[in-house]
Amino acid sequence: MELRPPLVLASASPRRLALLAQIGVTPDLVxxxxxxxxxxxxxxxxxxxxxxxxxxxxxxxxxPKARGALVLAADTVVALGRRVLPKALGEADARRxxxxxxxxxxxxxxxxxxxxxxxxxxxxxxxxxxxxxxxxEAEIARYIRSGEWQDKAGGYAIQGLAAGFIPWIxxxxxxxxxxxxxxxxxxxxxxxxxxxxxEP
Length: 200
What we know:
- The protein is an alpha/beta fold.
- The chain has a single domain (7-190), classed as Maf protein, CATH 3.90.950.10.
- Helix content is 31%, strand content 22%.
- It is built from six helices and seven strands; from the N terminus they run βαβαββαββαβαα.
- Strands 1, 2, 3, 4, 5, 6 and 7 form a seven-stranded mixed beta sheet that branches.
- The longest helix has 17 residues, at 45-61.
- The protein starts with 6 loop residues before the first strand and ends in a 10-residue tail after the last helix.
- 40% of the residues are buried.
- The mean pLDDT is 92.
């Protein structure tokens, strides 16, 4: 078996870790990064996701613990048109996000960046369109009480109770959870990293 470089996941998200496990990938190190996620003036949602994924990648690569490793970073953005919805850090954030999503379609964008030692970063994106049913005040209140919205982009988690709000999606489901697996697989395959269905 060929030796491979260690893989570092530049994310604190347990969802991304679980998604990687679905394709047989276990990072050798989880290395969360601290990056300012504030959109720049007139920055479009796709450009924001790309920029933040690359900034997270570079921040992790600068850590001595990641020296000589493959580094995988991602950023997920929930957008209503050109408007980026925030991560819900409090109940008021979550309530505003859910009220804006109610009865509408929105887009979930994830940019995935992979950095190999002494090589340019590779970048892929995934866009998924998601439709919310019209939510009543009681439904929003019940969801707020569940706590599932905490630290979630757009104030909801499709893999939880909010699945009952979503009659339709077009695109990658895993992207909405937080990591598009087909795009991530393609990046890893491109550098010869073994996943469950790629011969080591």
